[in-house]
């Protein structure tokens, strides 16, 4: 059996709900072999980020090379990259290995407000990383920073998606988790010509720590298995919906989502 493999290039969340930990749990649940290159260690829990310890760009590069030279990757996702040097290194390695199924989650700020990307790194994200991404998955505040547009309406989202696509990413997915005045969680996918909306019932919960990481990892898992971007996003949306719905109630703050929920539901349906 030839198992498909996915590489996450992201930060560690000691609390296990976001970052590398969320990505690897998601890969595992979706039947993909998970590998990782750590960009930073965060001391973090459901209450917030207590400390950030970035890796050197060299350490990030060496981890990617260890994976790339031996094992290869059917898909790659990036999460917290922290600074411009790490972003440039990651982009150069993606090019070197000619990785095409690349999902970039432009992580900027943790839900509790801590900065996971230095401000001066935003231009490197735009100029170096977005051109090598197949899919970029900003939430609304991240899309606003990247486009310098204010996003209030569905039309604003479309305009932002068009502007992001001009930076060289083939597919732009603007996530609607932060659109809290609606009853639905609506994500918009732009493929360079058409717009597709993925909508689900918004769950009233504060336990959404790691939703973005989990969602982008699920997309990468779908791509690793050879699915189209549309199909990978559709399944990722079902995965995150189940994970937010079946609350785990861990920790005293914004708790993690449930990475088992989707697989358990599928198992129940099969019986
Ligand atoms: N309360 C919620 N109910 C249902 N889905 C949600 C909820 N919050 C976020 N999502 C979904 O989780 C995914 C991640 O979105 P978002 O929270 O916007 O990203 P991020 O974690 O990067 O801020 C999206 O598919 C979004 O629609
Ligand atoms: C190491 C790390 N990476 C990413 C996030 C963002 O999490 P979220 O998906 O909730 O925006 C985080 N809190 N910590």
Automatic annotation (TrEMBL):
Keyword Kinase belongs to the record: yes
GO biological-process terms attached to the record: thiamine biosynthetic process
InterPro entries noted in UniProt: HMP/HMP-P_kinase_dom, PM/HMP-P_kinase-1, Ribokinase-like
Gene Ontology MF terms: ATP binding; hydroxymethylpyrimidine kinase activity; phosphomethylpyrimidine kinase activity
Pfam families: Phos_pyr_kin
GO cellular component: cytosol
Nucleotidyltransferase is among the record's keywords: no
Domain Pyridoxamine kinase/Phosphomethylpyrimidine kinase: from-to ranges: 13-258
Alphabetical list of NCBIfam families matching this protein: HMP-P_kinase (TIGR00097)
Name of the molecule in the record: Hydroxymethylpyrimidine/phosphomethylpyrimidine kinase
